Design the sequence.
């Protein structure tokens, strides 16, 4: 009895201990949830914190709090298919009433709108089978097939679900009844539709069709349309399958390029849209992909509006996506309220730089679609205030505003805007700014105002006053009198004389006279002791005389046009190929700051310089993440200053040196193509030779990216190259005959130096001319002369040196 009592007491104590432990765990979870909720109240865009909060409420079985957490999460971010299915399964567990089941249907609708997922559609259909009628389930499956039925690798799962549904429905009817025959026709139509779509498992589907078709009574259905669609689809699948194989084994960094090539190969619009939907699931944070998607479906109103909304939800910071969204709303003529809402949200969310281009896009829209000039002026003022001078150093917004004011006749306001621009320290000495101001005044204002601008500019511009003087003189020649021209010349002459003195004090600004070369030639001919001082004195005296006589001509004020490369960053020492790209064909005037504008996410940019500090036209860009590096690679051949910049993966030094070498002998597996129209791109050449399966095509281009009309097409074997050469000739492109031949570069000339007799350089003395030898050249022969003898051997015959008497006799011909 005592033992029994002790055992029961132990059980009670252990159960009480477990309850205490459970209470402690629950309190700890509640504290964690409270702490995480406070973080979200400060910043609701913490993705991982949302997930942690949901998991905590799931452990606590607090379904109401979990539902609220899901709703907050959904408002901030698009949810992945996995998260949606977890949420829906949690809701299914507690759904008992008709109203709760309808909420689950609405959750499924929201889930399929975020991302393309075959699994979500199948779960949606299966839930419908158990809770609704067959018509509702068919409708859901048809929607799923419209969205994901063209998914080459997973679409067959949806088609199989529909066929199984129709097969199950067929078993409900009596054989040979009208309902049964009608259902047979419906099932045949499903087979026909499925087998006309290129899917990876379509051969298995075709075998199922064959087995089922043979079991039917003869003459009941026609198999011709099914067979025809299958043959066409299986042929198309051969084109898609290489890309599907690459997608299976590809890294995340390779996906964008593979999908881009895949989409370029596909011609069907619906399949392209499906490919974009497949791509945005793993690459949802790649703005370039969303940009491509929006451009492709820009004219499809319903599609582009949904895609634009999803794009900015995934990449909220991307300015190009907000611009694309704004332009899509305008193109499809949505209300001004929707456009204003888009603009206000974009201004808040675009980061890290202020939305300069987004402001431009909105101002363009308002300028095109509104007559309210006062509100437009107010928007310009807001733009200038929000963007700030540091983010718009060239005053692009203000300059455009001034032009619009001038066009509508409000030159007074336009002058005030330009006064603010010119008063800025950076623009005060800028020739371009002054000339733009003068041209605007000349086009819309008064000639006297233009004269005043030129007068101010002549004193303000220290680097290129000659340009201001030339433009002012041209103005007076066009509109002025003789007196105006003479005053202009006098004023310019005095200012340019001052500019000459300024150029001598500042080494960055070089000033030349027309007679500099003549002076340098005279100095070479004069005695170095006297010319060093005397010529300098005469040079200065000559300069003073010219100033006095007003006969001083400027050749041009030259400012070195070589781009200065400030130390934007230290040279990249540890170059990681995963986060660093190699850039080449950079224009000499491009510096690191220019590249920074193109790649704002770059951690470090380094342009390689030579010993003189000039750009060698190549460099390196380092990023923090591999995704940013892949985004940069996608911008290969983007033009900067009129020259396409080549962006490629970083390779080791050995691979870079051995990556390409010009052949020195015949390349039997490579074709040389000459005479292509310069408008043809690499893609055009690929289309010409596509059917012959080349492994590589290289189009020769100039530094500015323009084609030279020459290409090399490489094949695996020489036999393939010979076969292609026979089949493709004669080749014409745009009615232009193209030369195609086996690549046979000219052999490299041997680097053998021919024998040259050693001639001693004539000696120079300090104050004498070149000392020439007095001996005639005909006598400058070797002391040893080779002479042939009768037996074929060569013997050396030594001759004694000639005396003065011998030379005298030779000259006198004795």
Sequence:
């Amino acid at each position: 009895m005592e033992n029994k009592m002790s055992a029961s007491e132990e059980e009670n104590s252990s159960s009480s201990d477990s309850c205490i432990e459970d209470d402690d765990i629950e309190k700890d979870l509640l504290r964690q949830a409270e702490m995480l909720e406070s973080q979200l109240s400060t910043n609701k865009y913490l993705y991982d914190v949302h997930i942690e909060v949901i998991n905590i409420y799931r452990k606590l079985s607090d379904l109401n709090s979990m539902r609220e957490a899901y709703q907050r999460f959904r408002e901030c971010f698009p949810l992945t298919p996995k998260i949606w299915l977890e949420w829906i399964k949690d809701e299914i567990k507690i759904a008992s009433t008709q109203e709760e089941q309808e909420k689950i249907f609405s959750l499924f609708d929201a889930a399929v709108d975020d991302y393309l997922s075959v699994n979500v559609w199948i779960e949606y259909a299966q839930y419908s089978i158990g809770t609704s009628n067959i018509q509702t389930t068919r409708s859901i499956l048809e929607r799923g097939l419209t969205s994901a039925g063209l998914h080459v690798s997973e679409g067959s799962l949806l088609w199989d679900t529909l066929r199984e549904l129709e097969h199950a429905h067929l078993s409900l009817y009596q054989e040979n009844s009208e309902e049964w025959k009608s259902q047979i026709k419906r099932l045949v139509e499903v087979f026909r539709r499925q087998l006309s779509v290129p899917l990876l498992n379509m051969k298995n589907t075709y075998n199922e069709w064959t087995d089922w078709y043979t079991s039917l009574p003869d003459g009941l259905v026609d198999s011709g349309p099914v067979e025809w669609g299958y043959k066409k689809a299986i042929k198309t699948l051969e084109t898609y399958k290489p890309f599907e194989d690459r997608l299976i084994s590809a890294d995340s960094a390779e996906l964008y390029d593979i999908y881009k090539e895949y989409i370029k190969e596909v011609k069907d619009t619906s399949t392209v849209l499906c490919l974009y939907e497949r791509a945005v699931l793993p690459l949802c944070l790649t703005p370039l992909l969303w940009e491509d998607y929006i451009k492709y479906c820009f004219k499809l109103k319903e599609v582009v509006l949904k895609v634009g909304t999803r794009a900015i939800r995934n990449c909220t910071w991307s300015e190009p996506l907000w611009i694309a969204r704004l332009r899509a709303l305008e193109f499809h003529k949505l209300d001004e309220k929707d456009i204003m809402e888009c603009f206000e949200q974009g201004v808040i969310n675009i980061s890290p730089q202020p939305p300069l281009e987004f402001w431009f896009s909105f101002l363009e829209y308002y300028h095109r679609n509104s007559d309210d000039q006062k509100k437009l002026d107010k928007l310009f003022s807001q733009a200038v205030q929000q963007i700030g001078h540091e983010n718009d150093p060239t005053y692009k917004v203000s300059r455009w505003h001034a032009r619009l004011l001038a066009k509508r006749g409000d030159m007074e306001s336009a002058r005030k805007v330009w006064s603010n621009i010119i008063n800025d320290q950076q623009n005060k000495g800028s020739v371009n700014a002054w000339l733009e101001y003068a041209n605007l005044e000349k086009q819309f204002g008064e000639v006297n105002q233009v004269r005043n601008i030129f007068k101010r500019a002549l004193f303000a511009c220290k680097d290129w006053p000659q340009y201001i003087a030339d433009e002012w003189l041209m103005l007076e020649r066009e509109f002025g009198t003789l007196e105006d021209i003479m005053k202009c010349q006098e004023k310019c002459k005095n200012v340019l004389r001052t500019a000459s003195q300024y150029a001598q004090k500042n080494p960055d600004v070089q000033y030349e006279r027309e007679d500099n070369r003549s002076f340098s030639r005279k100095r070479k001919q004069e005695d170095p002791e006297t010319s060093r001082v005397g010529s300098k004195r005469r040079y200065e005296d000559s300069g003073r005389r010219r100033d006095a006589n007003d006969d001083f001509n400027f050749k041009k004020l030259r400012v070195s046009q070589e781009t200065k490369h400030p130390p934007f960053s230290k040279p990249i020492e540890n170059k990681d190929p995963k986060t660093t790209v190699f850039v080449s064909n950079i224009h000499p005037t491009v510096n690191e700051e220019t590249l920074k504008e193109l790649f704002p996410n770059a951690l470090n940019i380094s342009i390689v310089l030579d010993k003189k500090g000039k750009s060698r036209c190549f460099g390196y860009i380092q990023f923090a993440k591999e995704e940013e590096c892949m985004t940069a690679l996608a911008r290969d051949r983007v033009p900067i200053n009129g020259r396409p910049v080549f962006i490629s993966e970083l390779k080791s030094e050995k691979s870079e040196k051995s990556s390409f070498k010009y052949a020195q002998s015949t390349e039997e597996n490579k074709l040389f193509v000459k005479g292509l129209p310069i408008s043809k791109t690499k893609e055009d050449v690929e289309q010409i030779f596509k059917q012959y399966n080349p492994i590589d095509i290289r189009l020769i281009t100039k530094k500015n990216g323009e084609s030279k009309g020459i290409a090399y097409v490489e094949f695996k074997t020489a036999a393939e190259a010979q076969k292609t050469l026979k089949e493709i000739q004669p080749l014409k492109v745009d009615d232009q005959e193209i030369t195609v031949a086996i690549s046979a570069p000219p052999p490299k000339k041997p680097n053998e130096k021919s024998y040259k007799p050693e001639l001693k350089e004539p000696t120079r003395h300090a104050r004498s001319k070149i000392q020439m030898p007095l001996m005639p050249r005909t006598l400058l022969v070797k002391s040893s002369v080779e002479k042939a003898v009768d037996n074929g051997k060569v013997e050396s015959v030594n001759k004694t040196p000639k005396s003065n008497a011998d030379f005298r006799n030779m000259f006198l011909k004795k």
About this structure: The mean pLDDT is 80. The two ends are 160 Å apart (CA to CA). The first helix runs from residue 2 to 42.
